[in-house]
Amino acid sequence: MDGPKILFRIPIYLPFFPFENGIPVTDTIVNSWLIILAVFLVCRILTHHMQKIPMKKTQLIAEKMVTAIDSLVESTMGSRFMRYAPYMLALMIFSLCGSLISLLGARPVTADFNTTLGWALVTFVMIQYNNIRAHGVKGYLKGFVQPIPLLLPLNIISEAATPVSMSFRHFGNLAAGVVITELVYSGLAALSTALLKIDIPVFQIGIPAVLSLYFDLFTAVLQAFIFCMLTMVFISNAASD
What we know:
The chain is mainly α. It has six helices and two strands, in the order E-E-H-H-H-H-H-H. The chain has helices at residues 27-46, 57-77, 85-100, 113-142, 152-196, 207-240, and strands at 6-10, 23-26. The protein has a two-stranded antiparallel sheet. The longest helix is centred in the last third of the chain and has 45 residues, at 152-196. It is globular and about 70 Å long. 20% of the residues are buried.
């Protein structure tokens, strides 16, 4: 599988920039901004002229989404972590749309490791923040030498492995789906040429749609849910240990 393609470059040439030909802008960045714009427009439509007593279907849909994520955060993290509900909803929507954009023929942004690593690093910062807030700096540092000081290197590695494992889990599943789908398309094209002696990939019609139901739809929903659940569990555990 090829990596993200560079669509254009921003002509910025400064001594401290490592890019000789300007800052590259990949399809991942472009698709991410398209998703942000689309989600923004949908939110504006759903929340347009909101009423205290909802009468419009758009407002009912918006309130249903907020109620669902509030319930999920409260049941998973507890009521004192409700401030994280907006972030969890944004993370889940971005993850879903970032994966499902492949249904429109675009490269999923979650198939780029930089995307999932960025989300995981945000989670990592939140984990450390809540740990320090709950136990203080002294208690936070003391946790690295428990139960015995000999485990200090292992505890540091374990803590640093959290964003790596989270990002690779999400990225790996989506990237594998992209690779398998591309192999199937190539194989069906070759089969069409070998059996029918024509250059038209007839066997590509319809057959890959079955794979898309799994890799593009089921996997996207599952990985978005798992990533958000891990984020909530890690943050809440850091504040309660």
